[in-house]
Design brief:
Layout: H1 2-11, E1 12-17, E2 29-35, H2 39-43, E3 50-56, E4 59-65, E5 69-74, E6 78-82, E7 91-100, E8 108-116, E9 124-129, E10 134-141, E11 144-153, E12 158-159, E13 163-168, E14 171-176, E15 182-184, E16 187-195, E17 200-206, E18 226-228, E19 234-236, E20 245-250, H3 255-259, H4 261-269, E21 273-278, H5 284-287, E22 295-296, H6 298-308, E23 316-320, E24 326-329
Parallel strand pairs: 20-21, 21-22
Antiparallel strand pairs: 1-10, 1-17, 2-3, 2-9, 3-4, 4-5, 5-6, 7-8, 8-9, 10-11, 11-12, 11-13, 13-14, 15-16, 16-17, 18-19, 20-23, 23-24
Length: 337
């Protein structure tokens, strides 16, 4: 029995989920609230003040600016929330709205709400809201508590280990019917199951050979890879040996990517090699830009983008030295001496 227990302990890790859903910071979606019709005042009990109407998480909502600013949200009934002051002078305040859930694991779904007053727009207010909530928990790996999180599906009243946004030790990524292998120290694992009613989740131990992720951290080595450019020519990253290379993960539908092209042209003109890791399904659009560096066809780099490097945002920049060591990641890659 002792031998069996040790074997199970080596192949599974069991974590504990928090009793309430959590809201991620730094994520918002913005909507506009406009001046409400006169009948809204009577519905709100003839409250005094300027009233703006809109929706939060698809539910009717009202902002009332009187002696203080308050928020009303239809969470099954019109519920009043006092807005908390913030350090941002452009914000009218914040509130945390709770929508009822049928349970049994969680009774409410939290939404962080941010109200903004925009200069020159007296008849409207901009409202930011957190677009998702997480089932959060911790699991002990290599003698430390590691934080994990799974996006909660409000409509289905559940969370899945293989679908939606997922957080692992501070990093966040989107999954679509997949169970990638993660690494904490020398421990490799994937998510196995979630039991919301019991507030536990299980990780399954995996081998180092199953871990194919490219870790985009300064000091790491980006593996060599072959690709076909948009004109059908074959290339390899190792063709650029001895020279600095900027990997530009981009698309023509990405406005920040397009805005960065003049800067990239300038860097290329001063000797920086660039490989465009383009994700356009239609190659005609990037080809029409006549960029002076090779751009990889999506079909030849899809595995790197979706499964190995797991690029989630565009543009993403990775600067490599002549031996493929990662020098910088993100916007800082464009400002290296």
């Amino acid at each position: 029995m002792i031998w069996l227990f040790l074997l199970i302990a080596q192949t599974e890790f069991h974590g504990t989920l928090a009793p309430e859903l959590s809201i991620p910071s730094s994520m918002q979606r913005i909507s506009e609230f406009k001046l409400a019709t006169p009948d809204a005042r009577s519905e709100l009990g003839n409250i005094e003040g300027k009233i703006f109407a809109g929706k939060i998480r698809g539910a009717r909502a009202f902002i009332v600016e009187g002696a203080s600013t308050v928020l009303f949200v239809d969470t099954g009934r019109l519920t009043r929330y006092e807005l908390r002051e913030t350090y941002d002078p452009a914000q009218a305040g914040t509130a945390e709205v709770h929508f009822p859930l049928p349970g049994p694991a969680y009774k409410t779904y939290p939404v962080a709400v941010y109200v903004y007053r925009e200069q020159g727009r007296p008849d409207s207010r901009m409202v930011g809201e957190s677009p998702r909530a997480f089932v959060s928990g911790t699991v002990k790996i290599e003698r430390r508590d590691v934080e994990m999180g799974f996006e909660f599906d409000q409509k289905a009243n559940t969370a899945r280990p293989d679908n939606g946004w997922q957080r692992v030790d501070g990093a966040q990524e989107f999954l679509k019917d997949e169970r990638p292998v993660y690494r904490i120290g020398k421990t490799f694992f994937s998510f196995d199951s979630i039991d919301l009613a019991a507030h536990i989740f299980t990780l399954k131990s995996r081998t180092a050979a199953e871990y194919t992720r490219i870790e985009l951290m300064p000091g790491g080595i980006f593996p060599d890879f072959a690709f076909t450019d948009l004109e059908g020519r074959a290339h390899k990253l190792s063709d650029y040996a001895g020279r600095r290379v900027l990997l530009d993960f981009w698309a023509t539908w990405c406005d920040p990517c397009m805005a960065a092209l003049p800067k990239l042209r300038e860097l290329h003109a001063h000797g920086l090699e660039i490989i465009g890791m383009n994700v356009d399904e239609n190659p005609e659009k990037p080809l029409a830009l006549h960029l002076p560096w090779a751009n990889a066809a999506l079909s030849s780099i899809r595995d790197i983008i979706e499964h190995r490097a797991r690029i989630q945002m565009y543009p993403t920049y990775v600067l490599l030295d002549g031996q493929r060591k990662i020098l910088a990641f993100g916007e800082s890659a464009l400002n290296q001496p």
